[in-house]
Automatic annotation (TrEMBL):
PROSITE patterns: GATASE_TYPE_1, GMPS_ATP_PPASE. Transmembrane segments: none annotated. This is GMP synthase [glutamine-hydrolyzing]. Catalyzes the synthesis of GMP from XMP. The gene is guaA. It comes from Acidiferrobacter thiooxydans.
Length: 515
């Protein structure tokens, strides 16, 4: 296992994903973690992340002594390398030119980290890398040699082979560094001696054993939404404890076409999981009646969900555990958010606070996994591909895709329009090319001609975006012919719609959802 110390780089999670892709388990800890946590984790190697700080400023983060005392290989990336150099007696200074973006470095010497890797032609020792730094190492500490250089920096990478300390001025974790994954693999496999043991089978077996050890012979309840995370949790728990798992699936009337039936078919019929389906559409729609403020709608949907779920769970007298699909980025972010960095732009629907209220113990089997790992184990657990690769769907569902006050007939129209859009996207091979796509119901009416008559009906907006992290997004350039087919099918097949428009707004400033 590898320890990643986070000095505040935006890329820290990427480092962890690269290490996991190399089949090696790793965890991220803040750079000021105490020495006991480090020795308790017993890493075979440590990676120090980058940081927006400068080692020459006062009070900037330092490498904990426990890392340097651990006698394991250390790889410092960007700030991590500068901190390593500065703390071991070298010199770091502001570079004359900041370097940001692509760069070419020449490798020198025969370090096991970089030797024989090349993006150049035959016999050339050059790497295409991604740089993002203002400071640079001016003088190496004793014992270190340069293992790569650029015209701008004599020490683009350094190594002390005796102590197995390495520093990279560039970022191997970003895909722009073409040999980045191989460099990380060389560090974790070759230099640290870690095996490729973090496989789907090992992850699943570990989680099943943990669940059994934690839960013993007690019972567990899970709010199943049909999304990837709660679905994978359901299957894992079912395998671990069988009938001592009860899932509660709340149909709030704001789901996509046939969604409730599909969830029941997959889990109850096919996998034999015990699922209670609660048809609570009337309750949700009643609570939402006449409410048009987006944040209030979200709140009502969230609170109604909690009430309905609690009522169901209260009937399950023997339940002691509440399972949730929390994943590793949530855990890291809520740890980081203690400093107050997290900003709430939209109050996201979740069941936070439920376990305390319900006096249940919390079970989070996915809390150490990244989303791509959840997907991979979901597939190897036999969940359908279409469920695993489904676009994200917000907790408040169609409630935030019907602008203004929600009405049942609007939800029915939207469900049909959305299903047509998704069906055509899949048929044209575009579903997997975009990150998220959906229809939005606009409660305004526009004039049209349908057959011989004049129509005065509602408007559907189509939204499709491409994004990596959902924090920023581009609208997808779907072919006109595809948009045309979707539009004419919606207008012909869905009563109550006479106009279809396509949303061409990027995020920022527009959000992905319309509310
Ligand atoms: P926005 O609209 O903020 O969306 O650009 C970013 C991503 O988050 C999803 N989203 C939500 N998910 N509850 C959720 O569980 C919510 O209230 C919510 N609002 C937005 C959205 O679908 C997109 O993937």
């Amino acid at each position: 296992r590898i320890l990643i110390l986070d000095f505040g780089s935006q890329y820290t999670q990427l480092i962890a994903r690269r290490v996991r892709e190399a089949g090696v388990y790793c965890e991220i800890m803040p750079c000021d973690v105490d020495g006991e946590a480090i020795s308790g984790f017993a890493p075979r190697g440590v990676i120090l992340s980058g940081s927006p700080e400068s080692v020459n400023e006062r009070d900037t983060p330092r490498i904990p002594d426990a890392v340097l005392a651990a006698n394991v290989p250390v790889l410092g990336i960007c700030y991590g390398m500068q901190a390593l150099a500065a703390q071991l007696g070298g010199q770091v200074a502001a570079a004359a030119h900041r370097e940001y973006g692509y760069a070419r470095v020449r490798t020198v010497g025969h370090s096991p980290l970089l030797a024989d890797l090349s993006d150049g032609g035959e016999g050339e020792a050059v790497l295409d890398v991604w740089m993002s730094h203002g400071d640079r190492v001016e003088a190496c500490p004793t014992g270190f040699l340069a293992i790569a250089e650029t015209d701008n920096a004599p020490y683009a990478a350094i190594a002390d082979e005796a102590r197995r300390y390495y520093g990279l001025q560039f970022h191997p974790e970003v895909t722009h560094t073409r040999q980045g994954q191989r460099i990380i693999e060389r560090f974790v496999h070759g230099i640290c001696g870690c095996q490729r043991a973090w496989t789907e089978r090992a992850i699943i077996d570990g989680i099943l054993a943990d669940i059994r050890a934690q839960v013993g012979d007690e019972e567990v309840v899970l709010a199943l939404s049909g999304g990837v995370d709660s679905s994978v949790v359901a299957v894992l728990l079912h395998q671990a404890i069988g009938d001592r798992l009860t899932c509660v699936f709340v149909d709030n009337g704001l789901l996509r076409l046939h969604e409730g039936d599909q969830v029941m078919a997959t889990f109850a019929d096919h996998l034999g999981v015990r699922v209670i389906r609660v048809n609570a559409a009337a309750r949700f729609l009643g609570a939402l009646k006449g409410v048009d403020d987006p944040e209030r709608k979200r709140k009502i949907i969230g609170e109604t969900f909690i009430t309905v779920f609690e009522e169901e769970a209260a009937r399950l007298a023997r339940v002691r555990w509440l399972a949730q699909g929390t994943i590793y980025p949530d855990v890291i972010e809520s740890a980081g958010a203690k400093g107050g960095k997290a900003r709430v732009i939209k109050s996201h629907h979740n069941v936070g606070g439920l376990p305390e209220r319900m006096k249940l113990k919390l079970l989070e089997p996915l809390r150490l996994l990244f989303k791509d790992e959840v997907r991979r184990i979901g597939l190897s657990l036999g969940l359908p591909e279409a469920m695993i690769h489904r676009h994200p769907f917000p907790g408040p569902g169609l409630g935030v895709r019907i602008l203004g006050a929600v009405e049942e007939r609007y939800a029915d129209i939207l469900r049909q329009a959305d299903a047509i859009f998704i069906e055509e996207l899949r048929r044209a091979g575009y579903y997997d090319k975009v990150s998220q796509a959906f229809a939005v119901f606009l409660p305004v009416r526009s004039v049209g001609v349908v057959g011989d008559g004049r129509a005065y009906e509602h408007v559907i907006a189509l939204r499709a975006v491409e994004t990596v992290d959902f924090m920023t997004a581009n609208w997808a350039e779907l072919p006109y012919a595809l948009l045309g087919r979707v539009s004419s099918r919606i207008i012909n097949e869905v009563r109550g719609v006479s106009r279809v428009v396509y949303d061409v707004s990027g995020k920022p400033p527009a959000t992905i959802e319309w509310e």
